[in-house]
């Protein structure tokens, strides 16, 4: 299993600081909601499932800090924590899914002793964590069937253990195939502008003994043409009911390239990533990030100080470019809506 990205210990949330990888393996401890919210915004923790889990534990952090307040003030403080955490990242629906569950636990336990409510919230966060571990394994098992022994895969961004409670979604497919005795090689897009592919995916796969090569994002077309690629596998931050997929910026371009080269394009994500309230990807909110991420890539000047910057963190891949969606419930193929709806209703 890859290095654990988050854990609860001594009434605090401990996060692997992913902004320090691959140079340093550093863990930070969070006992205050505002500090944790800024850590989520600053990508100390990232990846849709991990963001949701961090937020769930963040609600517990807020509750622990308010445990000595009067009951009504305590509940207001917890609700304030939920509201603050909901403002951190707009695109990943897992964040809101997890916070909604924590809100339901708070509502169901109103009137109980503050300490009892804290315990109920912590139990819920632990449950979400364990569920995510099982979900990763199920996604991996369903997806591994799609890979042959000797498969070569391209992935974009990081959807592995660093983004979840276990070994990931897109990378979980690779890990499960390896556990099944299949040899799989991965080409990891570097994933500009923050290089989650080269900094995180390559590091993680090397830790697990997976054959991995880093490629520049703009080398993907050449790799698809020359390297006998079997498929592309990516994660997702939100999936609309028609199968449109929001994922890290650059995913859409990779999907177009995959279609042009006749290579299957798979999306691996938990059912919690589905947003059946949205008819299509056109309705998915796309986070815009600070211009400094492009003007000063990795801390060095990479563009003129005054140049305007367009820096969306995600793009939307239309469903007609997606060969299959892999979840813990199975594998869906177009038309997506009937299967996605059935997954949600199971």
From TrEMBL:
The active site is at residue 237. Its main location: cytoplasm. Pfam families: IF-2B. Keywords: Amino-acid biosynthesis, Cytoplasm, Isomerase, Methionine biosynthesis, Nucleus. GO terms for biological process: L-methionine salvage from methylthioadenosine. InterPro entries: IF-2B-related (IPR000649), IF-M1Pi (IPR005251), IF_2B-like_C (IPR042529), Initiation_fac_2B_a/b/d (IPR011559), M1Pi_N (IPR027363), NagB/RpiA_transferase-like (IPR037171). The record marks 157 as: Transition state stabilizer. GO terms for cellular component: cytoplasm; nucleus. Belongs to the eIF-2B alpha/beta/delta subunits family. MtnA subfamily. This is Methylthioribose-1-phosphate isomerase.
